[in-house]
Design goal:
The chain is α+β, with helices and mostly antiparallel strands and 266 residues long. The chain contains 8 helices and 5 strands, in the order H-H-E-E-H-H-E-H-E-E-H-H-H.
Amino acid sequence: MADYDPQPGRVPQEDLSFARREADEIDLQAGLAGVAGLVSGAHGMDELLGDVSTFATHAIPGVDGASVALLQAQHVTPRIQTVAATAEFVGEIDTVQYQELHEGPCVTCIQTGRVTVSGSLGSDDRWPHFGGRVARMGVHSALSLPLIVDGEVLGAINAYAHTRDAFGEHAVVLGSQFAGPAAVSVRNAQLLASARERTEHLQRALANRAVIDQAIGISRSRTGASTDEAVERLKRMSQSENVKLFVLAEQLVDEAVQRAKSRHRP
């Protein structure tokens, strides 16, 4: 039996034929193949997560819409944010869950690190405000699968269905098999995005430093000051004019270039 958190007092009855199970297994393999084929370098982060949510709708039986939500841990208070959704109603549900009510299957899933299932959201006592709100939108079943790598919860895949009891143990098993490789793809994409950001930051820092060094040289040539004196002069000008040091340096270099050009005009 799969290990997950079902809706208390509600046990979906599953009577799936061999043909249905075989078809679901084929869909799962197609979803897994899609996730395995994702190359972080060929996609932006949002595009890759959009693909993951789309593959989830194929891999998990009974899904009418799915999303990928990530835990934004860099904030003072970690928050959950939907990054990709396959349908407009899914985005609306997640907005209610994360931004308005702060309760729901994904919130519980990320907090516990366990698969969370509901077959009748309107009568699910775990989320009294969220459940009724979403049921009135015509959505009655939810399945949230944690994205976990090395014991760290990155976020969750959320599956929703209009029918009641859409996600039984069979869907949980297939969804869990999909969520593992999907989590690895998400982690790889995050690492690559972070590496790119650090590289871009370093490149900007090096470019800024080169301009500042040029401005220091210009200041020294004009005043005969030492390097330290020229640096202090630029700092004082930056403070008095309330302009960032790099911006001031860039202005000085541009002015020097324009003067040089004007001197060499016939």
